[in-house]
């Protein structure tokens, strides 16, 4: 009886190990956990109680990159980084859009422009930048808007600011984003937010950057973190 139970446990353990290591690449970790039996010895005819406690590895972008506070990305391995702009809804009025810029910096070097233009120039499926990043590189993303003849501040992941929020799959959408009430969320943001659970819906190798370009006061109704939205994917 006891020998049969043990053989069963070993078989379960090895099948978990096989599926864990074979799924995708080198970063997947094997599920871990414990199976316990409620007694060491048993008479024939009695039943034992098995307790299961298994943790499956979270499929998450932090398996392949570290996040250095505030929001600098540091790859754990060599990767290809692709940048898309999902939306650039920086507006002067309801009908008049203003230009925005998206910049990238590697290893604290100069900012390089990835995108410049209006919402009408945004093609969310188009990869605007494909960059090879190496293990240990420091990757920062920034954005700014152009208004009244000049550039507003460049909000970026290297400095602490409420104007830029970087989120991964499953993160809770910040309360400033109108996804929380589901009314004034921008159409371009809808596919990436679950308005019921208030969580981010992106791939497990993606990061989404939400930027407020025009307002500086989070309590202002115009502070909605959807003036500029960028999606970064690591492959
Ligand atoms: Ca805004």
Give the cofactors and ligands.
calcium ion
CATH homology-level superfamily of the largest domain: Calcium-mediated lectin
The parts where pLDDT drops under 50 for at least 5 residues are 1-28
Kindly report the spatial arrangement of strands forming the biggest sheet.
Answer: 8-5-16-15-12
Which of globular, elongated, flat, extended, rod-shaped describes the shape?
A: elongated
The biggest sheet, with number of strands, parallel, antiparallel or mixed sense and barrel status, is: 5 strands, antiparallel
Which fold name fills CATH's third level, the topology of the largest domain? Jelly Rolls
End-to-end Cα distance, whole Å, is 49 Å
The CATH architecture assignment of the largest domain turns out to be: Sandwich
pLDDT averaged over residues: 84
State the share of residues found in helices, binned by percent.
under 10%
State the CATH class of the largest domain: Mainly Beta
Please give the domain count: 2
- What is the strand content? 25-35%
What features would you describe in this structure?
With 235 residues, the protein is mainly beta. It folds into 2 domains: 2-55, no CATH class; 61-234, Calcium-mediated lectin (Jelly Rolls). The chain has one helix at 2-22; strands at 32-37, 50-55, 65-68, 72-75, 79-87, 100-106, 112-117, 129-133, 139-147, 150-151, 155-156, 164-167, 193-194, 199-200, 206-211, 228-234. A hairpin with a 2-residue loop joins β9 and β10. It is elongated, with a radius of gyration of 24 Å. 26% of the residues are buried. The model is unreliable at 1-28 (pLDDT under 50). Residues 212, 214-215, 222, 224, 227 line the site of calcium ion.
């Amino acid at each position: 009886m006891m020998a049969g139970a043990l053989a069963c446990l070993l078989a379960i353990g090895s099948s978990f190990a096989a599926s864990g290591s074979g799924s995708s690449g080198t970063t997947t970790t094997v599920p871990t956990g414990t199976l316990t039996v409620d007694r060491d010895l048993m008479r024939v005819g009695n039943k034992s109680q098995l307790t299961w406690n298994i943790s499956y590895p979270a499929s998450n972008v932090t398996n392949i990159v570290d996040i250095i506070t505030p929001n600098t990305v540091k790859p754990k391995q060599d990767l290809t980084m692709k940048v898309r702009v999902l939306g650039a809804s920086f507006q002067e009025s309801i009908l008049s859009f203003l230009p925005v810029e998206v910049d990238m910096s590697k290893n604290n070097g100069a900012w390089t422009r990835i995108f410049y233009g209006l919402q009408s120039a945004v093609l969310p499926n188009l990869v605007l930048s494909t960059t090879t990043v190496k293990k240990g590189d420091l990757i920062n993303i920034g954005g700014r808007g152009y208004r009244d003849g000049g550039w507003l501040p460049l909000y970026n992941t290297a400095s602490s600011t409420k104007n830029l929020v970087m989120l991964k799959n499953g993160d809770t959408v910040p309360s400033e984003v109108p996804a929380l009430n589901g009314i004034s969320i921008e159409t371009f943001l809808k596919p990436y937010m679950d308005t019921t659970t208030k969580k981010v819906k992106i791939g497990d190798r993606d990061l989404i950057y939400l930027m407020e370009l025009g307002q500086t006061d989070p309590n202002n109704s115009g502070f909605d973190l959807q003036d500029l939205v960028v999606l970064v994917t690591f492959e």
